[in-house]
Amino acid sequence: MKRKITLKDIARELEVSISTVSKALKNSEEIGRDTKEKIQAFAKLYNYRPNNIALSLKNKRTKNIGVVIPDIVHYFFTTVFRGIEKYANQKGYNVIVCVSDESFDKEVINTELLANGSIDGFIMSLSAETQQKMDFHHLLEITEQGIPLVLFDRADDHVPCDKVILNDTEISYQAVNKFLANGRKHIALVTTESYFNVSAKRAEGYEAALSEAGIPIDPALKLILPYRDINENEIRQFFAATKIDAVLCVNEIFAVQCMAIVQKMGLKIPEDISFIGFTDGILSKFVQPTLTTIAQHGERMGEISAQMLIERIEIEMDVEKPYRTEIVEATIIERESTVN
Amino acid sequence: MKRKITLKDIARELEVSISTVSKALKNSEEIGRDTKEKIQAFAKLYNYRPNNIALSLKNKRTKNIGVVIPDIVHYFFTTVFRGIEKYANQKGYNVIVCVSDESFDKEVINTELLANGSIDGFIMSLSAETQQKMDFHHLLEITEQGIPLVLFDRADDHVPCDKVILNDTEISYQAVNKFLANGRKHIALVTTESYFNVSAKRAEGYEAALSEAGIPIDPALKLILPYRDINENEIRQFFAATKIDAVLCVNEIFAVQCMAIVQKMGLKIPEDISFIGFTDGILSKFVQPTLTTIAQHGERMGEISAQMLIERIEIEMDVEKPYRTEIVEATIIERESTVN
DNA sequence: ATGATTTACGAAAACGGTTTCGTGTTGATA
DNA sequence: TATCAACACGAAACCGTTTTCGTAAATCAT
């Protein structure tokens, strides 16, 4: 087993000082030709690489960024992650991932752990519980310590930091208008609890479009589902109880599950009932009929998040830079679940 | 902005030495009651936390593990990752993720970067290109440096290390036997290039079952698809050319795509043609008809991988411990694409 | 009162680098 | 020959910890 070689090893072996070795390997003008060549050759031979940890300690820069997300087995988050990882890697950063599992405590523990020097900055999307409790003390601590933070998608106005979010309200408004243009009158919304910021904004867009069309908001047309352990019967009852000819769902899974159920109830998609979901994931493309979805452009969101974060990391500390909120424009991808 | 406080800060403020502070915070018997209490109170007040980087340098332990996988927007890999992350986190380890994007070069660069002190061990699944080139020098370097390595799923016998793999051959054998038991005679295999180790093993099980049943292996019943950019026509031609009444697919996507195409060709599933895919992901559950799949138990694989890795990390270096290969037993999840 | 133990703390090395500054040697210049 | 700059290198500080060892003062036994 060949242990990693250090500057000290090279110095001892070549009978020079550690500083000489360090300088020689950086090709410093200070060191003579012969010595430099000798040291460089030796280093190459023994495949010397500087120790990252030592560098981090010295430079106060880890070249790591921390990503804290609620879930990893989740299409949208993985696409965002891919964007982050690609950009970060290209800029020489590594990515440490922690999964909060929608739990406030895990989110707190993970951030506090990483904040003790392990990373240069955070990219996060808030856990369900954090949004519900509206407790952001851990995030405020982070920013107060001067650690850059970017929130994406599930952000909150109470946290002063850079953000990357979707134009949720606007795109929902557009989606509902699309239903209206197709002559749909009984448009339902299938969503999650409203403490999810994004759900609230999507509901807002939904309601705005209806109001604008002079259609009253009917509570019977709104179904709130838990984000896990969905009860099929609840969905069945919802669709049985009221006449519905179009449905906007705040995610892909809700849409696909609803579609399967209404199909079993004998309805035709899109003739009798039309669907639009959020998250242009794998399901939307392969389910029957294929699902019209709102593409959130996760990879792009990740890229922008990483870019904003790294920019802030690498800026001089004394430069004042106001926080920005970048808005990514969603796109409606038309498929078979809506008529053109 | 409150910068992070260090031992030195506390020492200066309280007019004691750094060593005294360090010892007091570890509740050492060496330090007097009063001094200890004073220091501990001060540390609590200013929320002192030791710097992870400094600890890593001192202890030669980063408490980080590196995970290198070919793709992250991929159901199986994310479930494995979830297993890794859960177990690692619970053991106090963080996880650095690098995505090789099926590229040999990226895999090499990422591993070499992380190997310079950033992590205590690796968990990897080989990129397509690495398997094709059969070039494992970067992995050998890692193990020669004494850095623990666990390969999961896409492993290779040429790399001496711990491994966690699926009983691919056996479960494919069982799947084909299931088709045979249902009276299917023309059983196809839809797979990837054979340099994918797992595909080769799955083909082996497929062929073994057929041979045992006295059915000759017909090359026309084997379709090799690229792992991205699938051409639909190729699939259509394949199914048009030969009589096929059952199909084993080495992944979920292949299965779902084939199913959509044969349905368009007018075939009924499972009456006319039956399907079994690998990876019990989200698609299998929601596609119509639902897909019978082979569950790879990714989360469990991840957990085992993390456990094996951390065990080896924490073992005394001088203890000889032979490499193990842990085999995870797949399970066939029956759904509508096969008859019972 | 003297020597031996405790007690309670500090100095310093170590982890593996970078970087500033100092210094002995060389050759050129006045 | 005396002065001086350039050259080539080393010593040491520093990043933030932990830990070994040394030691002054206080306590104890004799």
UniProtKB/TrEMBL annotation, chains A, B:
The keyword Transcription regulation applies. One of its GO terms (molecular function) is DNA-binding transcription factor activity. Keywords: DNA-binding, Transcription, Transcription regulation. InterPro entries: HTH_LacI (IPR000843), Lambda_DNA-bd_dom_sf (IPR010982), Peripla_BP/Lac1_sug-bd_dom (IPR001761), Peripla_BP_I (IPR028082). It holds the Pfam family LacI. Signal peptide: none annotated. Residues 5-59 form the HTH lacI-type domain. PANTHER family: HTH-TYPE TRANSCRIPTIONAL REGULATOR GALS, LACI-RELATED TRANSCRIPTIONAL REPRESSOR. This is HTH lacI-type domain-containing protein. It comes from marine sediment metagenome.
